[in-house]
C-alpha cells in the first residue's frame, strides 16, 4: 500500500515546485488545443464541439489511465482523416459508435501486449517520424501565414521573440503562456485586424452531456463501423506509442506502454460517450508540455480541466485570442520537435539508416498518414537488415589431398535471404565422393534454411555421394528434425550430431 501511494505521489505531485510547473504547462497546452481541436473537427465534417469535447475527455481520462505521465492526448488529425467518409455517409452518431469500438480494440491490444511490436521500430524510423511531424506541424500553420495582414507577421515575430527571450530572464512562467497573454492583450485593446480563435469555428457553451450513440444495435452497424474502428485503433496506438517513446527520450524516463494502450482505449470510450471524436497522443502538445516544465500527470489533467473551464466559462474571451499567438507557439514546437542533428548525421550514419529516415519523412509528408510512413520505414529497415545479415554469410570449401572428401564450412546465418548463396556453393563438387557439411559456425532460422539443406543432401545422395552434416546447434537441430524430409540429425540417416 505504501509503495502504491508513493508511486501515485511521484506521478501526480512529486514536489510543490513541480506542481506549479505542471499547472502552468497544462494551461499553455489547453490554449494550444483549442484551434487544433476545431480544425480536426472541420476535417472530420462535424461540429467543433465534437473535437473540443473529445480533447477535454481524453486529456482528463488519460491523466489517470495512461502509462506515460506528462504526455498529452486529445483529438488528432490522424484519427480525424480516417473518419471523414464515415461521417459523410452515415452521420456523427456512427462516429461515436466507431470510437467506442476503437477503444475496446485498443484495450484488447493492450491485454495482448501488442505494444511489444514497437521493438521492431528502429531509431531511424523514429527520427524520420519526428522530423515528418515537425514538418507537418509547420505546414499546418501555412493557412495562417497566407493572405493575412502585416500585423499578423509582426505578431508572430513578436511571439517567437517572447518565447525564446523570456527564458533568459526567468523560467518561473512558461514563455509560450507569456506570449499568448501579451499578444492577446495587445490584439484586444488595439483592435488589430488579425484572425482570432472564433474565426476557426463557433465555440461550444456549457459542459458535455453523456449518452450512448443513437445507432441500431445490429450486425449491419458493426459491419459499417468495424473497418473504421480497426484503422483508428491502429493509427491511434501507433502515434501514441511513438510519442511516448519520444517523451521518454526527452525526459530520460521510462513509461508503461501496455498501460498506455489500455488507457487510450478507455479515454476514447469516454470521449465518445461525451459526444466527442476519437483521439490519441499529440506530439506537438506533448512537446509544448515538456518544454514548458510539465512532467507529471497533473499537467495532463490540468490541460483537460482548464480547457473545459475555458469552454464553459471564458468562451467569449477565448474566442478573442489572436491566431498569430498560437501560430508562434506551434512554430516553436515545430522547431523544437525537428531533430536537427539528423541533418549532419546523414553523412556520419550508415547510408541505409539515412535512407530509412528520409523515406519515412517523405512518405509521411506526402501522404499525411503517419501509419504509412512508419510502415514504409519498418519494412525498409527489415529489408536492409536482411541484406546485411545475408552478406555476413559465407561457405568455405576444402578438399582432401586425395580429392575424394570435400568439407564445406558454413559460417553465419542461414535463412530465406542467404539460401541462394548456400545452394550455389554446392553446384560443383568435382570428383569428391564424400561430402561433409560443417554448420557448427552457422544458425538455421527458418524452413527455407532447412529445405535448402534437405534439397542439397537429397541431390548429392542421388548422385551416389556420402553426405554428412555435422555441428548443428540445439535450435537448428530441432528445426531440422521437425521439418526436414530427407535429412535428419539422427545417426540412422548417416548424419553426425555435434
Write up what this structure looks like.
With 498 residues, the chain is of the alpha/beta class. The protein has helices at residues 2-12, 16-44, 48-65, 77-90, 92-111, 123-140, 150-169, 175-190, 219-251, 257-273, 283-291, 297-312, 315-318, 323-337, 342-348, 351-367, 370-391, 419-424, 447-462, 474-483, and strands at 73-75, 279-281, 394-399, 405-414, 434-444, 466-470. The strands form 2 sheets. It has a 4-stranded mixed sheet with strand order 3-4-5-6. It is elongated and about 100 Å long. The two termini are 54 Å apart. The model is unreliable at 490-498 (pLDDT under 50).
How would you summarize this macromolecular structure in one to three sentences?
The chain is α/β, with parallel strands linked by helices and 498 residues long. It is built from 20 helices and six strands.
SSE layout:
Layout: H1 2-12, H2 16-44, H3 48-65, E1 73-75, H4 77-90, H5 92-111, H6 123-140, H7 150-169, H8 175-190, H9 219-251, H10 257-273, E2 279-281, H11 283-291, H12 297-312, H13 315-318, H14 323-337, H15 342-348, H16 351-367, H17 370-391, E3 394-399, E4 405-414, H18 419-424, E5 434-444, H19 447-462, E6 466-470, H20 474-483
Helix pairs in contact: 2-3, 2-4, 2-11, 2-12, 3-10, 3-12, 4-5, 4-9, 5-9, 5-10, 6-14, 6-16, 6-17, 7-8, 7-14, 8-14, 9-10, 9-11, 11-14, 16-17
